């Protein structure tokens, strides 16, 4: 039983942790409000920079808070706190009753909170930063949620509803657009409304004869140069249909509707794990995520929380899902199918939707570099504007896997290739550092079993993926098909980052013409090759495995084998910056549909 003074200290610390979280969430909200202003003022560079800064908000806030809290714990003679964040603490110095009580007090404080699930995650981060892994269980942290999200008392709804009766669609759509109160003018609102109405009826003809309801999330989703209005169409006789309106803000055209989407596939791609995170302004993120989950049932809550800029909560849900899955499955963790990487060891449960990636101690030739370089590349990708072609990753430390769940071949592989990154404690394998990534079918494996029609589509998308990456200022480096994956939407995504760099780094050159027969037949280059020299003509030898696939690729993307094209992209980026990308096909843009000049 804790003394009354200890209980007071426990309450004080619980309140301080909650205040630390609230300060962090206010920073998130402020950044989202600022993103909307930047969209209205066309400050595109600031949106991009703020998007990068936001990724570090959480860790920075937790670091500062933990340093202060750790000092206070020592003043209160509460043993168990680390002297430094990297110092392991012994069990016999840990005040178990005190921290059990602190967690219970914290639960009481967040029971009526607007973001209890995020507050739980913040508590976990603080505790885990201060104490060693020995205490990471549900007695002291939230390995499972303690506060229900179903009964949060919201001061205001996160959804705006519009009942549409006969002849009211145009008036309703006008209200929808105006209700977001953008502080920039529509260039031609009447035209936008007419086009929205026409395209909505074209995509869903039955709406002409039905009474229906339009529901929209009350905050716009801001990303890059676009703002998205997201919701659904509700009718009495049919399933709900998701709807998304994409808005752009142009120097000459003003604010305007660029696209209307009502098919779940296209909207799902906009919320893909291969795209940068949105800015949204809300006090009730759980309500937003649950609504999105109804619209996009194929998306996990981990992906959706990450998509709205709360990637730490996405990470929490992902880890909880892993713990639950590992307890109920009879599968064993195995080496992931496909060609083994030279830099990373990759493993998974056979039916699990994610893969685990561990950096090897030594890289197989010809790969060069260090673990820190690889970590830097992954961090670089996390901060870069991902245009739907770079897989998102979640970074984890000190993850415990039951040894009974690990296949013998996998354990031998990890002991051989990543021994410095693993420890065995009793019946657990501890991996000190790893990444978790959405599972995709490796492109080389997909091509082996695909029919000609599937090969045609995916090879063209492979070329398109490379073209979009380089135009977004990303040089993938190793463009072998084994380093690309195919998603559920049959899109090609790059996921091997150990050689990734900006387009300004490589020096693209043509292969010099051989002057002698001996030079022409030489097995090694007879010309000088610098460290950053790249010869696109050589890509044809390894990009695709057979003549048919090479022919399909050459029909549309032969330019990728020409050094001049790569140099032209470098010059274009240098002069004009990164080109604009739209996460929906050009055929879905209003300017294409209506042939605007």
Main features:
597 residues, alpha+beta, 6-stranded antiparallel β-sheet, 17 strands, 42% helix, 15% strand
Outline of this structure?
The protein is of the alpha+beta class. It is 42% helix and 15% strand. The protein contains 18 helices and 17 strands.
Structure description:
With 597 residues, the chain is of the alpha+beta class. It is 42% helix and 15% strand. The protein is built from 18 helices and 17 strands. It has helices spanning 4-41, 44-75, 96-110, 116-130, 169-178, 189-203, 264-270, 285-295, 301-307, 311-328, 371-383, 408-417, 443-449, 452-471, 517-521, 547-557, 563-576, 590-593; strands at residues 159-164, 212-217, 221-223, 226-234, 241-250, 254-261, 334-335, 344-348, 354-359, 393-402, 422-425, 428-438, 441-442, 484-486, 492-494, 507-508, 533-534. The radius of gyration is 27 Å and the shape is globular. The termini are far apart. Residues 79-92 have low confidence and may be disordered.
């Amino acid at each position: 039983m804790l003394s009354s003074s200890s209980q007071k200290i426990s309450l004080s610390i619980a309140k301080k942790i909650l205040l630390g979280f609230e300060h962090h969430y206010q920073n998130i909200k402020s950044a989202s409000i600022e993103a909307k202003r930047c969209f209205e003022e066309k400050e595109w560079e600031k949106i991009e920079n703020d998007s990068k800064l936001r990724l570090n908000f959480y860790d920075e806030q937790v670091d500062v808070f933990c340093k202060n809290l750790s000092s206070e714990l020592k003043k209160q003679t509460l043993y168990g706190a680390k002297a430094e964040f990297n110092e392991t603490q012994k069990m016999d110095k840990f005040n178990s009753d005190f921290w059990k009580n602190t967690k219970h007090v914290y639960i009481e404080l967040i029971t009526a909170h607007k973001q209890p699930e995020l507050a739980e995650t913040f508590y976990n981060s603080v505790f885990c930063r201060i104490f060693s892994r020995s205490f990471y269980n549900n007695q002291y942290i939230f390995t499972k949620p303690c506060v229900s999200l179903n009964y949060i008392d919201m001061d205001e709804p996160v959804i705006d509803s519009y009942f549409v009766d006969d002849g009211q669609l145009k008036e309703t759509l006008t209200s929808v657009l105006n209700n977001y109160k953008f502080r920039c003018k529509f260039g031609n609102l009447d035209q936008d409304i007419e086009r929205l109405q026409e395209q909505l009826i074209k995509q869903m003809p039955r709406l002409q004869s039905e009474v229906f309801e339009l529901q929209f999330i009350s905050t716009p989703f801001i990303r890059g140069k676009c703002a998205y209005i997201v919701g659904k169409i509700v009718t009495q006789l049919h399933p709900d249909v998701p709807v998304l309106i994409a808005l752009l803000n142009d120097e000459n055209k003003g604010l305007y509707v660029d696209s209307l989407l009502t098919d779940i596939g296209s909207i799902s791609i906009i919320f893909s794990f291969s795209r940068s995170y949105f800015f949204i302004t809300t006090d009730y993120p759980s309500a937003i995520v649950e609504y999105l989950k109804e619209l996009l049932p194929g998306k996990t809550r981990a992906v959706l929380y990450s998509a709205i800029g709360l990637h730490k909560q996405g990470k929490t849900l992902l880890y909880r899902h892993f713990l639950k899955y590992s307890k109920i499955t009879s599968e064993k963790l195995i080496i992931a199918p496909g060609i083994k990487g030279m830099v990373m060891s990759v493993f998974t449960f056979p039916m699990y939707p994610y893969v685990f990636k561990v950096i090897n101690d030594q890289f197989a030739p010809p790969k060069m570099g260090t673990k820190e370089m690889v970590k830097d590349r992954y961090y670089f990708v996390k901060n870069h504007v991902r245009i739907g072609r770079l897989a998102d990753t979640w970074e984890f430390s000190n993850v415990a896997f039951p040894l009974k769940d690990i296949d013998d071949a996998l354990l031998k592989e990890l002991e051989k290739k990543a021994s410095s990154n693993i420890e065995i404690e009793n019946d657990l394998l501890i991996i000190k550092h790893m990444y978790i990534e959405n599972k995709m079918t490796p492109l080389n494996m997909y091509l082996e079993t695909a029919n000609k029609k599937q090969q045609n589509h995916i090879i063209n998308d492979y070329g398109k993926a490379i073209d979009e990456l380089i135009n977004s200022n990303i040089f993938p480096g190793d463009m072998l098909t084994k380093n690309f994956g195919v998603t559920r939407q049959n899109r090609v995504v790059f996921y091997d980052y150990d050689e990734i760099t900006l387009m300004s780094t490589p020096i693209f050159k043509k292969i010099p013409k051989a002057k002698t027969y001996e030079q022409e037949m030489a097995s090694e280059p007879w010309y000088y090759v610098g460290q950053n020299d790249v010869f696109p003509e050589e890509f044809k030898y390894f990009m695709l495995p057979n003549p048919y696939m090479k022919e399909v690729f050459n029909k549309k993307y032969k330019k990728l084998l020409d050094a001049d094209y790569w140099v032209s992209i470098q010059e274009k980026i240098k002069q004009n910056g990164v080109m604009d990308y739209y996460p929906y096909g050009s055929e879905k843009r209003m300017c294409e549909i209506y042939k605007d000049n």
